[in-house]
Amino acid sequence: MSAHDRKPEAETSPATPMIAQYLEIKAANPDCLLFYRMGDFFEMFFDDAVRAAEALDITLTRRGRHRGEDIPMCGVPVHSADAYLQTLIRKGFRVAVCDQLEDPAEARKRGSKSVVRRDVTRLVTRGTLTEDSLLDARQSNFLLALARTRNSGNDAFAAAWTDISTGQLFSMDLDKADLAAEIARLEPGEIVFPDTIDWERDMTAPPAGCAMSPLPARQFDSAAGERRLAEIFSVRTSEGFGQFSRAEIGALGALIHYVDLTQRGRLPALAPPRHIDTGRSMVIDRATRANLELARTLSGERRGSLLAHIDRTLTGAGARLLSARLLAPSTDTGEIGRRLDAVACFVAAEALRADVRQALRAIPDMVRPLSRLSLARAGPRDLGAVRSGLAGALALPDLIEGHRALAPPPGEVTAAVAALRDGPHDLVARLGAALADELPVQTSAGGFVRAGFSAELDEARTLRDETRQVIAALQSRYQAETGIKPLKLRHNNVLGYFVEVPAAHAPTLGSAGGGGRFIHRQSLASQMRYTTGELADLEIRIAEASGRAQAIEEAIFADLADAVLACSPEIGRMSDAVAAIDVAAALGELAVAARYCRPVVEDSLAFEIRNGRHPVVEAALEAARSGAFIANDCVLSAPDPSRGALWLLTGPNMAGKSTFLRQNALIAILAQMGSFVPAETAVIGVVDRLFSRVGASDDLAGGRSTFMVEMVETAAILNQARPGSFVILDEIGRGTATFDGLAIAWATLEHLHEVNRCRTLFATHFHELTALKQTLAHVANMTMRVSEYRGEVVFLHEVVPGSADRSYGVQVARLAGLPDAVIERAGTVLGILETSGKSADLSREIGDLPLFAAPRPAARAAAPSSAVETRLAGLAPDDLTPREALALIYELRALAHGSDGPDPKAPSG
């Protein structure tokens, strides 16, 4: 049934108690669409109905009148509400779910006009989703709270964030300069902030699609936050969790308040808060993340991103951990080393890797079901996921240690194995004994408790099932006694059990009834319905047996849910251990399949990559069978240990400059997240901050041109980069006039070399910059090697020492398919420009030559000036013997290299 293919409950009027109730609840939730439960539908009225019908593309109807006007109305079925919620949340709506809090029969006991008690049980917002149908299993959905404070007269911030579907809770202090980078890393679904902050004026632009939810500033008070933390974690003080600033406590308190507000007093199972130190991970700003396409491409798709390429995890928890490590690469060499040890373990032991990955396939997500259980939104399948997840996780230690002869597990794997061995074995056994193999979605469906687990339940089920057999026997007896073969015993929610016969047999049944045995209940067009005293007694027995069985099952579900929630900390640790093993095994699989090497990550400013490759481009070439990727070295280690070197890279477009820049940044990220890297060898000094200024884009909504965006991003680099940073810059200054752009690029390069002193790859078409090598000691000129053959340019994609003397723009334009007339004209203009070099001459030299006119005759060649040209001018080629021609070639080569003597390799005689 669709959202509108059904008959509404009843037309409403201004006087109905139902509309009064609706308006009262709506007034308490004015900023939300109100999903008002009426039977099997969530209905919306008035303006909510108009907005929802447009957003969901469902029919808008009108029922009843209010203040003299028809009431707009639309609705969606309860059983498919999640799909509609997903659409509404994605389009920026907040939804208040208003449920029926009592059975309609109870309301009728209070009078015929009594309204079923209803109230909002949950606010659905972008950052507070828990249902699997509304979430991406492989991606976290963070709710972020920001508190602002003052630090030495400057704005500073504290951030607290959680994914309520997993219960993890974090906080950190950060400067305003790092705020945008942290928001870009987390990509929160929703941001909670004090209403005293003018976001448009004071803050950075939020991520696309992020919901913004201001709260009264008093909710960020640190004293109130301390009380909230103490209350929900049953502690006297938050100091037992670590050292938190007052601003962090305020942000954590506001975050918990907002979760409590949206969940209407039912908090999910939250883990104790963890303080994150700034500087423990590589800082990557939003522009750099976008340029490098870490989690999604520039078009917003996951496919084609670095994450999509390296993600070979098999569990939801593992996928989320891999994403977190990629988006926040570590700067702790000890931690990086432990991660690399774990990957190396799975690289070296193929059988171990295969067995572990096979076992991981059978382990479902355990933490997200925990959240739904704590919020009373879970069903039997959530308990089944916990059962299967724990059982699979507890089997991993023996599996891993059984391969110890092949590869002793390193530190991170050993720690994960220890966490798994400490798992709740009794709970696994209890869930295994209690839950059936096949589980329904809802507890109301019943049948999810295994036979034999509860004697009381088995007794109720037996009575219920045998009574159903009695119904069948009773139907057969009535058929025999009355002689009416079409007689049936049926049931519905209105009449209960009844005898149904075709209308033509009604007289027969009446005569067979004798003394009113068959009592008439209902007449239909073609059927007649009756009951008997015997059938009524049987119905009571059936109802009691079914209700009793359902009540027992629901009580068992509640007991099992409490037992699972009591083990939340252990289950959370087991999930983390499974995720760590999954990530290590997945990265091991990637390293073997893609031929990656183990990098050396050290506390230095070294950067030496031999035969490095771009991971995503290489994979795309292999998939398309377009040839092998050309590997290149990158060495930015400077003789001075307190600084890095700068490579100035020239060469034509399409030669691979941007790919080379990006691949080295990606290799640094992969190494510091704890992955093997696409190279032959790699030695990388820890990169504390990564900056990228690559590509051209504008910000029309923000009123910024392409060049302004370029300058803003360049300014951020020059103001924040330091020796430990890594910077890639491509075509600085290309968005403005030639001389302006050259001047900006020149000054930028000098600043990076003299002030920032960081490891830098600087690609440019301004060949004049190559002269800076003479004055800047740590600049190296590099170029993209190309070859020309019969007027065609061939890109070799090799990075070699030297400088490009031209950009081959016209040749690239020909490859792009520009018309021949345009290419020919461009070549002519280019020749004049290169010869003239003065703008005063351009209008005279170029302007008098129409675009489609015949080309100007080439100027007569000047007198030969070089020794080679002089020698060639006096030759008579037809008079040369083969030996003389060969000797001439060696002679010309000697002349070209400035040698006056004969070439020793030239043929004699």
Describe this structure in words.
With 909 residues, the protein is an alpha/beta fold. The protein has 6 domains: 17-124, DNA repair protein MutS, domain I (MutS, DNA mismatch repair protein, domain I, 3-Layer(aba) Sandwich); 137-278, Nucleotidyltransferase, domain 5, CATH 3.30.420.110; 311-424 and 567-594, MutS, DNA mismatch repair protein, Chain A, domain 3, CATH 1.10.1420; 455-559, MutS, DNA mismatch repair protein, Chain A, domain 3, CATH 1.10.1420.10; 600-613 and 627-811, P-loop containing nucleotide triphosphate hydrolases (Rossmann fold, 3-Layer(aba) Sandwich); 861-909, no CATH class. Helices cover 44% and strands 18% of the residues. The protein is built from 30 helices and 27 strands. Helix 7 (222-233) crosses helix 8, helix 14 runs antiparallel to helix 15 (380-401) and helix 15 packs across helix 16. The radius of gyration is 38 Å and the shape is elongated. Mean pLDDT is 86; it is low at 1-14, 698-703 and 849-861.
Q: On the 0-100 scale, what is the average pLDDT?
A: 86
When the domains are counted, the total is 6
By CATH, the superfamily of the largest domain comes out as: P-loop containing nucleotide triphosphate hydrolases
- Shape estimate: elongated
User: Stretches where pLDDT falls below 50 for ≥5 residues?
Assistant: 1-14, 698-703, 849-861
- Helical percentage: 40-55%
Q: Please name the CATH architecture of the largest domain.
A: 3-Layer(aba) Sandwich
Structural class: alpha/beta
Number of helices: 30
How many strands appear in the DSSP assignment? 27
Strand content of the residues, in percent? 15-25%
Query: Would you give the CATH topology of the largest domain?
Result: Rossmann fold
Radius of gyration: 38 Å
CATH class of the largest domain: Alpha Beta
* Largest sheet properties: 7 strands, mixed
Major sheet strand order = 13-23-24-25-21-26-27
Through-space gap between termini: 100 Å
